[in-house]
Amino acid sequence: MTHVLAADPTLADFGKDPLWITIIKAVMLFVFLMLGILFGVWFERKLIARMQHRYGPNRAGKFGLLQSVADGLKMGLKEDLFPRTVDKVLYLLAPVIMVIPAFLAFSIVPFAPMVNLFGVQTPLQLVDLPVAVLFMLAMGAVSVYGVVLAGWSSRSPYALLGGLRSAAQVVSYEIAMGLSFVAVFIFAGTLSTSEIVKAQAETWYAVLLIPSFLIYVVCMFGEAARIPFDLPEGEGELVGGFQTEYSSSLKFALIMMGEYLHTFTASAIAVTLFLGGWRAPLPMEWEWAHTGWMPALWFFIKFVLTFCFIVWVRASLPRVRYDQLMSLGWKVLIPVNLAWILLVAAVRNIVVNEDNRMIGVALGAVIVVGALAIWMRFDTVNQRRKEARKAEVDAEFEQLSNEPAAGGFPVPPLDLPHYHGVQHKEIPSGTN
User: Fold this and answer.
1) 412 preceded by cis ω (within 30°)?
2) Which long-range contacts (CB under 8 A, 24 or more apart) does 110-113 make?
3) For 136-168, what is each residue's pLDDT tens digit?
4) pTM for this one?
5) DSSP β-ladder status, 112-117 and 120-124
6) Could you give the 3-state DSSP secondary structure of residue 81?
7) How far apart are CA 355 and CA 156, in angstroms?
8) Tens digit of each residue's pLDDT (9 = 90 or more) over 62-84
């Protein structure tokens, strides 16, 4: 069922609002994100608690609703400490760089089509650009500078290593994430977020382009540094990652705020590009389900469900090793994405231009056969490496087991008396 509204916004509808309407929408967006952080922390703790058969926060306020407010007040009022060796300017600037790009990235998210806001017809979206999705990717790339500067300005080897980890991780997964958007651009024919939502009137891209959607879901966790890809904060190896030298003060609160905002941004982009944005989740004949402020409710429901999925993954999966993280990004996601983009381009060529149908079919067949050949070759080589490594480890283990004096396992000789038959009186005094 197609629901193309007469009030569907286009790029031409932006930039015409009065200044006071723009200010009101910016304030509404800011309030939404700030309240989202407060309730998001509480909701995540509650949901994980229920998964683990616990109650979660239940002391501060009804159902523990004021626990996030209490934590924020505590961090804001605690003494602000500065280690002696830090670069104070960059040390203070790093958390700010992490937060501001996350707010800016949310400005291109369409919450609803044209709505009546204080008597003015305006799209419920702060701003839209011909390259809106690229703007979102740029803001995600800028925020990693805050992480790197937080580690470098701390003058701590553990914090610096955590910052470098984050830089390498973002580079790896932003490439795969950007490639997962290419198929969307090919089908939508635009990089504008409002136009992409309009192009999903018939079918959501999560269904039509399911490989791109699945790759984006994986990259979403890597981009937001959420479990199982929260390697920049690997407590087991790096104490506390890039934020090791940040005490529980307002600076630490800003860092946590930036991480939550990136999670919200990743969820909103998933809803916008793949889950139909503000469109109703089911074909509905009722006009009220597609007009007014109801689309904003559909967007909010999809947004909350996506965030629930992120929390569910956190409660279910362990953290991966860093070599597994990098191997997945460079050796799996990027090659698969490139092959999928070529296939999508060939199919799109078939649909749009019937004259080149045979060329498109041949190109698609070559891509599929080539991808299968590369995958089989990679799988065979990988299996041979595993078998060779296993044989090497087994040989080394056998050698060390037979030579205890060479640093192996201290296996006693087989001809010694049975230890359980030795009487206590036969053991010399003073022997432990």
Assistant:
1) no
2) 110/9, 110/193, 110/194, 110/197, 110/272, 110/277, 110/278, 110/299, 111/278, 111/295, 111/296, 111/299, 112/278, 112/293, 112/295, 112/296, 112/299, 113/5, 113/7, 113/8, 113/9, 113/278, 113/295
3) 888 888 888 888 888 888 888 888 888 888 888
4) 0.79
5) antiparallel
6) coil
7) 62
8) 888 888 888 888 888 887 778 88
